[in-house]
Specification:
The chain has 24 helices and no strands. α12 packs antiparallel against α14. The longest helix has about 35 residues. The chain is globular. One of its GO terms (cellular component) is nucleus.
């Protein structure tokens, strides 16, 4: 297979972050692979010639000069030698001197005037960082990660010296990544924005342009992904998406020799000879964290993971799981890796990745062997959760597996694509829901979905506000939104007019009214602390879901209840024998029931109690 073709000049999007602009096929004209993946406009702006640029600047200067002259503002003459002090003092209309604002302060303190002047020297990074937040606050944010964030979700540890001075001197990029992750609900939003821009500038300069690789840089990318918070201005040159971060982390881990096919002892790419500072546990742990990030993102977007699970992954998992000297959180990482691996297998074998393939019913005999095998694998996973793995996340991922296993009961030939992230109310459909002939398999899947969603939401709602803010939203909160979304899908499938599930699963047993209010209150609390943190942004789905739910009940559910009562009423008439009296239906309709007429009148409902 020929390699992707490269353009003579990169498109504007790739040029802004200085990465290769690769076309989809050899000899193609665009768009490039990155623009296709991120759904961006792929446009190449021709470079301006030097003469054109000079002429453009001269025209701008002339335009400004005319504007100042029209306002009677005196300009310094060329003969004055640039001495503006006398002109400023002699004329009230002359241009006032610039105050020593942020730009002058930056120049005096050695801060680059333009952000694209950032170098790979950590001293430049800290010069810019210290101008944003003082070192005392930086030290407190580092402590927040080590004391509050990591113990709650021990995925990316800090090895070796953890004090502020050592981190600043030895692992500067990892320190800034930690500050980026831990500043939510602590720093002002504008300061968070400045830290995010600095972090992405460093990432672009060091990793994309400098092509530097190390486990420390890899850990920094993992932290940025887990607590991702994009700059407010997406046109900013250093912007990275979560897809870019996952690819950067996975590629770096593979190039460091942490993942990929098992390599022999000999060979020039043998990482044991080039990366002797990487110990076994660090190699296994960093690679498996990359697998967690990659697999979870593929599950959200319902795209197959390009990194297929192989014998090296299995070996890394087993070695880390049985490593006696494993650090804090080692057992939890292995637990999450096993869960994500099984969830990915369920999604793949259930046809969730292929949105174009028609859905296959859960009761179809052709899929029963596959479903039984997946259910057995889920039971095996649950039985292998050891007692020493305590805490909420020991069961959190078990419920995620159950949700993925029974999600196909809600699939139709046309709605599979709507189960991808984001899980928003706008993606719900009141007409595209399954209406099969209900079997015991359907009933089992419906009840399992309901119970798993309730259990997962119960775990999340048991967290305090600090925990909710400090947990990585991309792994935890997105799963909460997924459970909430499936509950709403269940509610539609059991309450919408014409449904077949409602006779076997009461829509009120889904307890939508019991779960949405506390989620909304939690979102309000988190948003008041930091409206741009990952937790707040994901939980914003709950208020909109509540609005949709109330409108849906007013529009469809109440009508469906009235129609059902009408059907039951007509059935009662037939059962009592009034269907054979030879009178038109309207004469024996509901009109007389509300007229208050006396018995015996034409069109008045007869007394049924005496029959």
């Amino acid at each position: 297979m020929p390699p992707p073709a490269q353009r003579p000049r990169a498109c504007d999007n790739c040029h802004s972050i200085k990465i290769k602009c690769e076309l989809g096929k050899v000899g193609g004209t665009g768009p490039c692979q990155r623009c296709v993946r991120l759904d961006k406009e792929c446009k190449v702006t021709p470079p301006k010639r030097q003469k054109d640029r000079v002429a453009e600047l001269e025209a701008e200067v002339e335009q400004l000069r005319r504007l100042l002259e029209s306002q009677n503002i005196n300009l310094p003459s060329p003969e004055s030698g640039g001495d503006r002090s006398s002109a400023n003092e002699s004329s009230p209309n002359s241009i006032p001197p610039r105050n020593a604002g942020p730009k002058k302060r930056k120049l005096e303190e050695g801060i680059p005037e333009r952000e694209d002047e950032l170098t790979t020297n950590p001293e430049d990074w800290f010069t810019r960082l210290d101008a944003i937040i003082p070192q005392a606050t930086q030290s407190k944010l580092l402590d927040r990660y080590t004391v509050e964030m990591f113990p709650r979700f021990p995925l990316v540890p800090i090895r070796g010296k953890k004090d502020f001075a050592s981190m600043r001197a030895e692992r500067p990029m990892l320190l800034i990544a930690i500050l980026y992750a831990s500043c939510s609900a602590v720093l002002h939003l504008d300061l968070q924005e400045d830290v995010a821009k600095l972090m992405f500038d460093i990432l672009s300069k060091v990793v994309v342009e400098g092509d530097q690789k190390s486990t420390t840089i890899l850990q920094a990318i993992q932290i940025i992904y887990l607590w991702f918070r994009a700059p407010k201005n997406h046109a900013y040159g250093g912007y990275f998406s979560i897809f870019d971060l996952v690819k950067l982390a996975s590629d770096m881990a593979a190039e460091l020799g942490l993942g990929g096919p098992i390599r022999g002892i000999q060979g020039k790419n043998n990482w044991h000879s080039t990366h002797r500072d990487i110990d076994n546990e660090s190699a296994w742990r960093n690679w498996l964290v990359c697998r967690i990030l990659s697999t979870s993102l593929c599950l959200f977007m319902r795209t197959p993971d390009s990194l297929r699970w192989d014998e090296h992954d299995e070996s890394s998992l087993q070695m880390l799981d049985y490593w006696k000297e494993g650090g804090e959180g080692t057992r939890l990482i292995c637990h999450i890796v096993k869960a994500e691996k099984l969830t990915e297998r369920i999604a793949s074998e259930s046809g969730c990745y292929d949105a174009e393939t028609p859905a296959i019913g859960v009761s179809d005999p052709a899929v029963q062997p596959t479903r039984l095998a997946l259910q057995s694998a889920a039971l095996d996973f649950e039985s292998q959760v050891l007692p020493d793995l305590s805490g909420p996340f020991a069961t959190f991922w078990r419920h995620i597996i159950t949700l993925q296993l029974h999600e196909p009961v809600l699939h139709t030939p046309t709605n599979k694509r709507s189960f991808t992230a984001p899980y928003l109310a706008e993606r719900l459909s009141v007409t595209d829901f399954p209406m099969p002939l209900v079997t015991p398999s359907h009933i089992a899947s419906l009840t399992s979905l309901r119970d798993a969603a309730h259990s997962l939401l119960d775990i999340f709602l048991s967290f305090d506000t600090t925990t909710v803010i400090t947990l990585p939203a991309i792994l935890v909160h997105s799963r909460v939104a997924y459970a909430q979304y499936l509950l709403m899908r269940l509610y539609i499938a059991t309450s919408a007019p014409g449904n077949t599930f409602g006779a076997f699963l009461d829509p009120e047993s889904l307890r939508i009214d019991a779960y949405l209010p506390p989620l909304i209150r939690l979102q309000e609390i988190v948003s008041a602390a930091d409206e741009r943190c990952g937790a707040s942004r994901v939980l914003w789905a709950s208020p909109r879901m509540r609005e949709w739910y109330l409108n849906y009940r007013r529009t469809f559910v109440d009508v469906a209840v009235l129609e059902q009562r009408q059907v039951e009423f007509n059935s009662a008439l037939d059962w009592y024998g009034f269907g054979d009296v030879g009178v038109e239906g309207w004469d024996w309709g509901l009109q007389g029931l509300f007229d208050g007429g006396e018995m015996g009148e034409v069109g008045v409902m007869p007394d049924l109690e005496g029959l």
